Amino acid sequence: MVQDRGAGGVQRDGERLVRHVQLWLTAVTVIANLVGAVVVFALLLWVVPSPVVAGDIGLVNLVGVPAYIAMALGVGAVWGTRRLLPRLRWVTEGRPPDAAEQRTVLRAPVHLLVVEGALWAGGTALFSVINGLRDAELIAPVVFTVALGGITTCATTYLLNERVLRPVAAVALSHDPPHRPLVPGLTARAVLTWTLGSAIPVAGLIVVAVFTLAGRKVSTDRLAVTIVGLGGVTVTVGLLTTVLAARATTVAVQSVRSALNQIEAGDLAVRTPVFDGTEVGLLQTGFNRMAEGLGERERIRDLFGRHVGQSVAQTAIAGGVELGGEVRDVGVVFVDVIGSTTLAATRPPTEVVDVLNRFFAVVVDVVHRHGGFVNKFEGDAALAVFGAPMALDDPAGAALAAARDLARRLDREVDEITAGIGAAFGAAVAGNVGAELRYEYTVIGDPVNEAARLTELAKDLPGRVVASGTAQAAADPEEAARWIPGEQVLLRGRLEPTRLVTPT
């Protein structure tokens, strides 16, 4: 029903589901009434101390009770299913239910309970009159036994029908999850279990005591049989209804628990089916909304990390954000495509974008491998920072190693273009710059400007890579040995000359 298989496939699934529900509703009605009949006969024959099954009146009861139950089965099946099945037309049509149709499905167990209750109430009244006309003292035991069988039947029917109608309820609630309990829920199930497990046997013992106090002699053996009979009915039927009531709750809780395990494993797309209109259904709905919120939060976090860098995103999420920054010793690598204007003028825009995307993919991969993050993309250039916001043991060495690695990989993997690469090291301010409503994490300071100027020089050098002597001096000896000192130059916009170093 929930798969997109075309109108024909959905209708066939719906028709199959309705036939399945109709079959099981009929079976439940038969089983529950047979259980009630067995309870009635067991009480009349062995438990209730009265001549209800003796003589002519006994023959009437032994014949009339099965006949009435058979009639009630037919009437109940027709009355209950004929009123319910037309309300399930939306299932066979493969469309979402409206509010009235949804309520009909969720309240169907209550509706069928009322049908069974009415039929057994009629039977109680009928056989009370029949036996009362013969002997007024028979009214009380008849009312007790038939009413007990009716309560047993109604409770069993309600709990079984909840289970049978669960697939249809799941489809109905998948379109409009509940915001409040729509049917009697956990309290009703608990009351039914208490009624069959405690109230009825105690009531039976009270009835026997009343008979005894009223002057009817009850032997010790008869009293013992009565207690054993009521106890047997209580153990059997009470266990059945307790298991059914418990399963109705635990199945839903287990579905939520299973989904929670998948959430813990990282599957944020998991959803649990909502098939209960009670407080348990609210739990299932709440879980799905929680999972949806977690998934949306994770998507936002992922997009946030892609825009500002994962390290910046993790820092912001862990400690919050505020305007301003701190002075950090950072390594900086600036890379800029040579001849990007000519590239844009001589190639189609889609091809230019494809080349730039491959270019930036290499830049991002190399920078991340060396512990830095790409602070920003500027057209056909990129600025990478090492040592902020995540501290590094050797930010200068990481920047120099990334510059060398970047030159090799760009020459090998993106041979359509060439790029100048400059690396520098020094103190800079790293933090959030902008306004309260719009800001970005960036690095401002002399090493950033120096790296940009070195990149301009690198475009005219054979290896297209150059760094500052300050970066070489601050790097670990193994990385510093890979660079050769060169001349000193005064870079544009700077007051002191910079010692150039190039990779061996």
Give a description of the structure.
This protein has helices at residues 6-47, 55-84, 89-93, 99-106, 108-134, 139-164, 166-175, 186-213, 220-264, 279-308, 310-319, 340-346, 349-369, 395-413, 446-458, 469-474, 477-480, and strands at residues 324-338, 373-378, 381-386, 418-435, 438-444, 465-468, 483-489, 498-503. Mean pLDDT is 78; it is low at 1-10. It is built from 17 helices and 8 strands. The chain has 2 domains: 6-283, no CATH class; 321-503, 2-Layer Sandwich (Alpha-Beta Plaits). Strands 1, 2, 3, 4, 5, 6, 7 and 8 form an 8-stranded mixed sheet that branches. It is an alpha+beta fold and 504 residues long. It starts with 5 loop residues before the first helix and ends with a strand.
Which key features would you list for this structure?
504 residues; alpha+beta; Alpha-Beta Plaits; 2 domains; 8-stranded mixed beta sheet; 17 helices; 14% strand
**Helical stretch count?**
17
Low-confidence stretches: 1-10
In oligomeric terms, what are we looking at?
single chain
Strand content: 5-15%
Write down the domain tally.
Answer: 2
Query: What's the overall average pLDDT, rounded?
Result: 78
Order of helices and strands: HHHHHHHHHHHEHHEEHEEHEHHEE
Helix content: 55-70%
Structural class: alpha+beta
Largest sheet: 8 strands, mixed
Q: What gyration radius follows from the Cα positions, in whole Å?
A: 41 Å
Distance between the termini: 67 Å
Number of E-type strands: 8
> What is the general shape?
rod-shaped
Q: What order do the helices and strands come in, and which of them pair?
A:
Layout: H1 6-47, H2 55-84, H3 89-93, H4 99-106, H5 108-134, H6 139-164, H7 166-175, H8 186-213, H9 220-264, H10 279-308, H11 310-319, E1 324-338, H12 340-346, H13 349-369, E2 373-378, E3 381-386, H14 395-413, E4 418-435, E5 438-444, H15 446-458, E6 465-468, H16 469-474, H17 477-480, E7 483-489, E8 498-503
Parallel strand pairs: 4-6
Antiparallel strand pairs: 1-3, 1-4, 2-3, 4-5, 6-8, 7-8
